[in-house]
Amino acid sequence: MLKYLLALSALSLACSPAATAQRGARCVPYSALYTTMLLANGHYWHCSSPDTVERPFEPSRWGFFFGLAGAQTRHGYFGGAELEGTYRLSPAAQTGLVANVLVPQRIVSNLGVRDAAKPMLGLYTLSSRTRLFVLDNSRLRLSLLGGVGAGVATLADRAQQVADRGQEADCGCEPSTHAKTLATSVGLVAQAGSSLTYKLRSDLWLTANAYYQQWAGATRFGRQADLSPWMLSLGVTMPDHWKPAAR
Predict the structure, then answer these.
(1) Burial 10-45 (b: 16+ CB within 10 A, else e)
(2) DSSP assignment, residue 30?
(3) 20 to 30 A Cα–Cα from 142, which one of 103, 130, 170, 220?
(4) What pLDDT, on a 0 to 100 scale, did the predictor assign at position 184?
């Protein structure tokens, strides 16, 4: 910023009344323009300092995971996403809050709902999960995981379309629609499995979670086995590190 102020000062001096009187009626500050170019290019500036200072990433007890999720059920394969926030309890244990979304998928069975001509099943969970580290070194982390939480399962019919809300009736366009939801089940879920992390860099890890998710409550359609998938998620982890509390 200082070099630009110096350039402006040189330009103003070249165009001052005294300089104008010596050169005539016209002000042609060739020397000021040349000085400005040199200052802008840094030829006359020797005391430069970095604008920013990069700080290395410092992991804490808090961590974060985001990845793509896949599931295998009795009615086929599902895809979605998994999101988890974690906290390091001790050098060998970690807890977290995880959310799973499996996008509704077309299935063959109507799960006992007669009105479903083209049934679609969707699964959503929010649970608390704990990891116990079996291995944790500079490159790999292997852990056993288990958790409990709440699950939501929806059964929709793609043959029955419902108009989306918030559309203008007189827009003159074809309204957008979605499959009609015929039934919703809410219950408890339990998870058990394992997790493997590869520490790619100090600030970026790759993690794969594999576990079974058991539906443990009543259902309004189908059976518990219909809503209990094998889960696999793969994504990136923000590193965490155990730091003893300061005394």
Answers:
(1) beeebeeeeeeeeeeeeeebeebeebbeebeeeeee
(2) H
(3) 103
(4) 95
The structural architecture, per CATH, of the domain 56-159+180-241 is Beta Barrel (2.40)
For the record, the structure tokens of 111 come out as 């799960």
Which residue type occupies 11?
L
**Angle 98-104-109 from CA coordinates, rounded to 5°:** 125
Report the pLDDT value the prediction gives residue 77, as an integer from 0 to 100. Answer: 95
Q: What is the DSSP string of 177-205?
A: EEEEEEEEEEEEEEEEEEEEEEEEETTEE
What is the rounded CA–CA span in Å between residue 155 and residue 125? 15
Q: Which two tokens stand for residue 134?
A: 């079996």
Q: Which residues contact 77 (CB under 8 A, 6 or more apart)?
A: 70, 71, 105
Task: Indicate the pairing of strand 204-215 with strand 119-136.
Answer: unpaired
Q: Which residues of the chain have pLDDT under 50?
A: 1-8, 11-48
